[in-house]
Amino acid sequence: xxxxxxxxxxxxxxxxxxxxxxxxxxxxxxxxxxxxxxxxxxxxxxxxxxxxxxxxxxxxxxxxxxxxxxxxxxxxxxxxxxxxxxxxxxxxxxxxxxxxxxxxxxxxxxxxxxxxxxxxxxxxxxxxxxxxxxxxxxxxxxxxxxxxxxxxxxxxxxxxxxxxxxxxxxxxxxxxxxxxxxxxxxxxxxxxxxxxxxxxxxxxxxxxxxxxxxxxxxxxxxxxxxxxxxxxxxxxxxxxxxxxxxxxxxxxxxxxxxxxxxxxxxxxxxxxxxxxxxxxxxxxxxxxxxxxxxxxxxxxxxxxxxxxxxxxxxxxxxxxxxxxxxxxxxxxxxxxxxxxxxxxxxxxxxxxxxxxx
Length: 357
Hints:
Layout: H1 2-13, E1 40-53, E2 57-65, E3 72-74, E4 80-82, E5 86-98, E6 105-122, E7 133-139, E8 155-175, E9 178-179, E10 184-207, E11 217-241, E12 244-266, E13 276-302, E14 307-320, H2 325-335, E15 344-356
Antiparallel strand pairs: 1-5, 1-15, 2-3, 2-4, 2-7, 5-6, 6-8, 7-8, 8-10, 9-10, 10-11, 11-12, 12-13, 13-14, 14-15
């Protein structure tokens, strides 16, 4: 107990200063970098990721009563209609160089993902006796106008939508792999990250409750943004032997983001009305991004120290906070409660290969 107390007291005296020479045994985090003759590496990855965004509801079920005042009646258990999401192929490429001084690595990579999804649905009647009502989709947050005859939200018998998404991610990082024990290696890294995100949301609705309705009524939405900022990551590898390993990664970044253009245009629901629209240009803000993954890999030298091969399979998760500016712009103009964009999520399989020489 006395030895422990003295050691703790000694450490507290030097907590904010370098350790005095000779007071404690020396420790050194041995480098764990791959050592090849020319110190260069290239890597390529195939991604099969699922892309999903909040705030992408299109409509909810309703019924128009045809025996009385032709008003919309919400169902007791309404069913929402969402934009469809799916897995899509993507790729990542990168390169890097290992310095001779303490085995530091300078690396750069680029990720490219494109996706287009479509949704189509015809409304159905519910909660009324047969013959007393006609099923409709009540449009949610993608239209600013209302039906002029009733002041209610626009309602449609048929809804078709298309979401086009483009995502480009760039990283330039400095890292140093090292052993933290006999079987565990850690690779902290820090650097610069950039992102380009482009979205289009196109909705076509066959309106029923306007007087008289114009067909079709289209809501066209666009968002274009870029971001740049610092990023930090930590990669951990548990070495199983025979070149096999378990790997877990995590990273976070904070990006200064500019939305070059966010726009909304919708056709008038009533014949003779003018087009409705809203726009936002050069909106600056701070956006955060977090990533994580878990997987299994194998690596081996060939003609050491000339070449080294590495293969890795992971399941990755990415969250980009406050990305759905298209929906936020419509909500701001519709109810005036401020910009409240919702999140974007990506997750899926990543198969990577790396070649060091």
